[in-house]
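QA checklist item 7 of 12: single-chain prediction sanity check.
[x] sequence parsed
[x] length recorded as 439
[x] structure emitted
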Amino acid sequence: MLGDMAQTTETPARTPEDGPARTPRVHRAWFVAAVTFVTIIGAAAFASLPGLLIEPLHAELDWSRGTIGFAVSVNLALYGLTAPFAAALMDRFGIRRVVAVALSVIALGALLTVWMTAPWQLVLYWGILVGLGSGSMALAFAATVTNRWFVARRGLVTGVLTAAGASGQLIFLPLLSWLVEHHGWRPASVTVALSALAVVPFVWLLLRDHPADVGLAPYGGKYEAKPAPVTGAARRAVTVLFKAARTGPFWLLAGSFAICGASTNGLIRTHFVPAAHDHGMPITAAAGLLAVIGVFDVVGTVASGWFTDRFSARRLLAVYYALRGISLCFLPILLAPSVHPPMLFFIVFYGLDWVATVPPTMALCREHFGVDSAIVFGWVLASHQVGAAVVAFAGGLARDAFGTYDVVWYASGALCAAAALMALVISRPRPGAGLPAGA
């Protein structure tokens, strides 16, 4: 009797045409989205820390900034290179397992840094372990959850989950910078590890791989049976890469997005705090400015999506990169011991421009690569992180060599000018252009 009642209220009919027997008042998809949101916020803790570690590690362990920057560059590169395969892993093993393992690997890597005594350990723990773990929770996590659990409101959910990273940066940067300044870098690393571990129970208990697991249709859609685990997805990702690499637009998009990563994650997120500290600004104040960037990049992303629906994506990218390059050339004269209005203007502008490049870049991927655009964008995103990795390393080397970051700001400004030109010369797609389905 109880079993029959449970089946009546909890499980679906056996065929997709019948659908689930009962629709809850608040759809389970929103709880899954909430867990995903919290998980991404927790992930922002380890994304916020590298820029805060450079000065403390240099002072305590006498490691060069180039050495520390190399470990950060390995982290950023693996984050990007893992991303194209993350969705394939989730299709094969399930969202819950992949995310839980990724969080555990991140916690292990962050915790092991507490006992490190040699630079190679920083590369292994922070660069490789945290890089692989965070790469498994890249944009593919939010995209997979949205695609499986939502038919209606996909745009809204995607925007909210994308904004979670900025929200997490806002929450954790001031806390981690306070810990670093008052208690040292080790408690900050432990905080990152505990934040990752704290999310694991929520993921394991509340996250489900597919609506059919709990007898529901996706939000706004019809009930469908859970598909069998997908094999060969990773092979397809590589095949699509080789086909896309034969086209000019792919290299222009990948090159410009690599410069985007170089001038955001590789440059500002990694080196802004130590550069401001060189000019006498307290670490907590510099980290607070980065947190403000996290607030305004939410606004900038939403606005850029609205613009992309109405204006040429190529021209938008050119404008974004050109303005970013000009602002970087002014940064050396804005850095000072205290925060003043021109610096606040720079921070607000950079926040608005931070990920404004994503909507037009995705739109151009759709125009040129059709049904394979999501996979192509995954590889373009990988180039973004490789660009970030190169500048994270090169920026540290330049600071060691010149004693200042000025040359880094000017060189990055010139790169942004090159990215603006690359965006303008992307050709318009021919009718019927794009990679064949299932390439």
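[x] summary fact logged: The radius of gyration is 22 Å.
[ ] second reviewer sign-off
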